[in-house]
Design goal:
Layout: E1 19-23, H1 30-41, E2 43-47, E3 74-75, H2 88-104, E4 108-112, H3 116-123, H4 133-146, H5 148-158, H6 160-165, H7 169-182, E5 199-205, H8 208-225, H9 227-234, H10 251-258, H11 264-287, E6 293-296, H12 302-311
Parallel strand pairs: 1-4, 1-5, 2-3, 2-4, 5-6
Subunit structure: Monomer.
Family: Belongs to the IPP transferase family.
InterPro entries: Dimethylallyltransferase (IPR039657), IPT (IPR018022), P-loop_NTPase (IPR027417)
């Protein structure tokens, strides 16, 4: 390890650099890079993957097991049951409290995850409009009954900017809820990008065909590791009743296997396809942020290159 890779993280002006965010598509190696940075820079991890909030959803979310965390504390994992939900605004409060706690102990907070809006909520000046449980429930019932297309078409009429940016049911429901409650498009609540405190975002990306291979291998590995059994064990805990957890990648598909309407092979293939689509949406989101500094996940000195970006070493440029 070079001198540039060790010691406390500092900004170019010599001040302490409070926050690092490791972002990018699923399967790109964010969790491993966060561990490497935490080891090099005296850091702790703060989860920003919205599906890793759930206790018991371990295999299908690729949650790093405690035995593989190398002694690095991880925050905001496993704090919800599969029956529960949280909002981005609630996550914002939790994440900022965790970041402040880590900083108070002289450690570097390392936010890690691919849920783009959650990352922005943690690091950016961003306020969220309120919610209404009845409006949300009605829209979610419409989503369950009629599928994504009618709600997406409605959003395109009232908020074409958001409609062009988002494609998953939960966020479309939220955008329609905000528009109905406030009379303003959801996109109007996404201001210019401004950090709450100095932050470095490091994005991981690489060859698209390699990403597809990684994702297919990862899903098949999850199946071999017991994803179906994990889903079965969560049903008595309320997986079917949880509006968010039951729709997670892999869990939705394997509920169909348990119901006898899909085979394991079909569920694995469907999960691979859905995961590729999700990864593409993640890349679109993070590429829209010019502050993200991109590194190739295959570079041999990835941990060192990321640490140099954090430390602001002269000549440290994205791969």
């Amino acid at each position: 390890m070079s001198a540039a890779d060790s010691g406390p993280a500092t900004a170019r002006e010599g001040r302490a650099l409070p926050v690092v965010a490791v972002v990018g598509p699923t399967g790109s190696g964010k969790s491993e890079l966060a561990l490497q940075l935490a080891e090099r820079l005296n850091g702790e991890a703060v989860n920003a993957d919205s599906m890793q909030f759930y206790r018991g959803m371990d295999i299908g979310t690729a949650k790093v097991p405690p035995s593989e965390r190398r002694g690095i504390p991880h925050h905001l994992l496993d704090f919800l049951t599969v029956r529960q939900d949280t909002t981005v605004a609630e996550f914002q409060s939790l994440a900022r409290a965790a970041i402040a706690d880590i900083q108070s102990r002289g450690k570097l907070p390392i936010l890690v995850g691919g849920s783009g809006l959650y990352v922005r909520a943690a690091v950016d000046v961003l306020d969220f409009p309120g919610t209404d449980a009845d409006v949300r429930a009605r829209l979610e019932d419409e989503l369950d009954a009629g599928g994504l297309a009618p709600l997406a078409a409605r959003l395109a009429l009232v908020d074409p900017v958001s409609a062009a940016r988002i494609g998953d049911g939960r966020r479309i429901v939220r955008a329609l809820e905000v528009q109905e409650l406030t009379g303003r498009p959801f996109s109007s609540f996404m201001p210019a990008r401004e950090y709450v405190q100095p932050t470095v975002q490091i994005g991981l990306n690489g060859d698209r065909a390699e990403l597809h291979r990684r994702l297919a291998s990862r899903v098949r590995g999850m199946v071999d590791a017991g994803l179906q059994a994990e889903v079965e064990a969560l049903i008595p805990q309320g997986l079917r009743e949880g509006r968010t957890a039951r729709k997670a990648l892999g869990y939705r598909q394997f509920l169909r296997v348990i119901d006898g309407v899909s085979t394991v092979a079909e569920a694995a293939d469907d999960t691979i396809t859905a995961t590729r689509q999700f990864a593409r949406r993640q890349l679109t989101w993070f590429r829209a942020d010019p502050r993200v500094q991109w590194l190739d996940w295959d570079r041999p000195d990835l941990g060192g290159a990321a640490a140099r970006l954090v430390n602001g070493a002269p000549g440290a440029t994205p791969a």
